Amino acid sequence: MLEIQAVVCGVYDENAYIVSLPGSPDALIIDPGDDYPAIVKALAAGKKALKAVCLTHAHFDHMLAAPGLIADTGARLYVGALDLPALNDESLNLHNPDVSRLPPPAGLSGIAYGSSLVLCGVEFSVLPTPGHTPGGVCLYAKEHGVLFSGDTLFLGAFGRVDFPGSSARDMRRSLELLFALPGDTRVYPGHGGRTTIARERARYRMP
Question: What is the domain extent for residue 101?
Answer without folding.
Answer: 3-203
